[in-house]
Design goal:
The chain is mostly helical. It has one domain (4-70, 79-161): Ferritin (Up-down Bundle). The protein has helices at 4-33, 37-63, 83-110, 114-144, 148-158. Helix 1 (4-33) packs antiparallel against helix 2 (37-63) and helix 2 runs parallel beside helix 5. The chain starts with a helix and ends in a 14-residue tail after the last helix. Bound molecules: hydroxy diiron-OXO moiety.
């Protein structure tokens, strides 16, 4: 059994992961609308990843006999601009999520909640991966500069990203 404080904090994290999913879905729609179908597809894969992150936390609460509470998800907010500006916002958002996961680890340590701390190791590793992916894309965009053809080629490359997250959450 985990504490009420930890249960509430994990429920908040579920909301943040779902907001991430919603944000990337909105960004995907904008990219598809502006002709960058590949980037839209990359962001849709990211949407699935975020839903998986949320569901993994939800499954953990169920395993611990704690209540899952789905709160209202804010409307996705991002500034429309260049592809580079979009990925800068993606990276900033992931840095926020990383900080949020680190807060959870701190709470788990204060509460000597070893089970939750163990679960959070997976998320710590996942955030390293998330930030690395975004930083690599931004580095490519830096090299490409203002070359529209280069951005379009990157768009095709990003469109090859395969979905790695389970789509069926009944088994999560
Ligand atoms: Fe769930 O890692 Fe992104 O937000």
């Amino acid at each position: 059994m985990i504490s009420k404080t930890m249960t509430d904090r994990i429920n908040l994290q579920i909301n943040r992961e779902m907001y991430s999913a919603y944000l990337y879905l909105a960004m995907a729609a904008k990219m598809k609308e502006t002709g960058y179908a590949g980037i839209g597809s990359w962001l849709t894969v990211q949407y699935h990843e975020e839903m998986f992150h949320a569901m993994k936390f939800a499954a953990y609460l169920v395993d611990q006999g704690a209540a899952v509470k789905y709160a209202q998800i804010d409307a996705p907010a991002f500034a429309e601009g260049s592809v580079k500006e979009l990925f800068q916002q993606v990276l900033r958002h992931e840095q926020f999520v990383t900080a949020s996961i680190r807060e959870l680890v701190e709470l788990a340590r204060v509460e000597k909640d070893y089970a939750t701390e163990n679960l959070l190791r997976w998320y710590i590793d996942e955030q390293v991966e998330e930030e690395k992916n975004d930083a690599e894309i931004l580095q490519s965009l830096e090299l490409i500069g203002n070359n529209a053809q280069g951005v379009f080629m990157l768009n095709i490359e990003l469109g090859k990203r395969a979905n790695g997250a389970p789509l069926d959450f009944t088994k999560v």
